[in-house]
Amino acid sequence: MPGVKLMGNEDIAMLLYPGFTALDLVGPYHFFAGMMGARVHLVTNQTDLRPVESDMGLAIEPTVTLADCPQALTILFAPGGTDGTLAAARDPATIDFIRDRASHTQFVTSVCTGALILGRAGLLQGKRATTHWSVLPLLTQFDAEPVDARVVQDGNLITGAGVSAGLDFGLSIVARLRGQPYAAASMLTAEYHPEPPFEGGTLSSTPKNVSEPMTALFAPFVQEASKLRIVK
Amino acid sequence: MPGVKLMGNEDIAMLLYPGFTALDLVGPYHFFAGMMGARVHLVTNQTDLRPVESDMGLAIEPTVTLADCPQALTILFAPGGTDGTLAAARDPATIDFIRDRASHTQFVTSVCTGALILGRAGLLQGKRATTHWSVLPLLTQFDAEPVDARVVQDGNLITGAGVSAGLDFGLSIVARLRGQPYAAASMLTAEYHPEPPFEGGTLSSTPKNVSEPMTALFAPFVQEASKLRIVK
Predict the structure, then answer these.
(1) For residue A182, which of A80, B7, B72, B178 sits 20 to 30 Å off, Cα-Cα?
(2) Is-above-0.90 flag for pTM?
(3) Is the CB of B193 less than 8 angstroms away from the CB of A200?
(4) Could you say which DSSP state residue A51 is in?
(5) ipTM of the complex
């Protein structure tokens, strides 16, 4: 098939830290790992290879530590979360790792509040980016331009909106790396023809009696996230 | 909020077996584990609690063995896969577990080819059900009526289509258990307003130059799956 790269040799690093949201990572993982020949490294910011517990409890086994992750990458990826993401964004070793690998990767990427980690590492400066709706306005504190969209690309930065946006994000990256027919094959394998059981999923499409308490629920996290700044 | 159950005490068992598809499980997990008070048990069919490797490599840590899984459940769930699913469907201990817990659960459920496991356990008999498109016609061999839909409920059986259908499936179950406003809150948290980057995800919406090689790729798996019958 023209424009399609069936076999590749991408090195893809996906960050795992305590309190990450599992679906933020597993959505794009499904499409990244489905690229024949790609090597996906699950990189823990813990000091050993014990499973990393997500925000809801489910734990994923990492394949490599920060120190042992390959230097040259095709994709560097950070998932989101809430309290765990704040801790990762404040962790010097994690930020050093993200900054270092970002200078040796084709695409710097995040889904959901993973953008806060990239932001603190200074990787959103002067760029258009997206993140989970709850913290979208905060991207300005990292000198980024917040964009209310599902997936936003600005140069080598590709960011996805909240949690489930990781599927749209992952597919769009596969299309970029391997061509659209390859991505269409992955889409068919994953039967990705979504049919949410009812309308919703954004602030504007959610009834106020639901969106207002949810916004209130996120307020303490947003308050803490609003204190993050680029690490000099 | 009327019709909403904020706090619950559901016991939910999600089966893990070598070669399961991680996204089949993590999609619904996100919505199940997001129900306040629900306990999600990740049940391994291995003999110990070592992480269970998925079809693409990513390994998830189980919380309990088949023997130690609670008896009375709100949801019993089987994810899909390919070769690993055939092995699980042929494993007597797995089928015994599924059958036993199915008789003590409110909902018997699957996503993707997880329906083959339920089918072999005799749980699809006389019911309408769905599964991954590649094996949908095979449901007749378990005396089920195949339905080409994203999520199908027939009595206490709820089945989802391939992989990504787990998100629609999970949300629809949350709506049933906790009321639609609760599910709308989960949907907003997960920002579930999907926007696939291009059209596709079903056989009919995928160009033939992509769908034909993919159908051929699945043929050996389908051939093996076609030999499965209900265990007497």
Answers:
(1) A80
(2) yes
(3) yes
(4) P
(5) 0.97
- Residue with the bigger pLDDT between B34 and A2: it is B34
Q: How far is B8 from chain A (nearest CA, A)?
A: 16
A69 catalytic per annotation = no
Size of interface A-B (CB pairs under 8 A): 223
CA distance A77 to A100: 13
Mutate to test the interface with A, among B46, B110, B188 (most CBs of A within 10 A): B188
Tell me the average confidence (pLDDT) per consecutive run of 10 residues in chain B, 232 residues long.
83 98 98 97 98 98 98 98 98 98 98 98 98 98 98 98 98 97 98 97 96 97 98 92
pLDDT band for position A183 (cuts 50, 70, 90)? very high
State in words which class domain B11-225 has.
Answer: alpha beta
Whole-number Å distance between alpha carbons of B147 and B133: 10
In 3D space, the residue among B52, B79, B80 whose CA is nearest the CA of residue B65 turns out to be B52
Q: Which of A26, A112, A163, A228 is catalytic?
A: A112
DSSP labels for B106-139? EEEEEETTHHHHHHHTTTTTT-EE---GGGGGGG
Strand ranges, E, within chain B: 11-16, 39-44, 52-53, 59-60, 64-65, 73-78, 105-111, 128-129, 145-146, 151-154, 157-160
Domain positions in chain B: 11-225
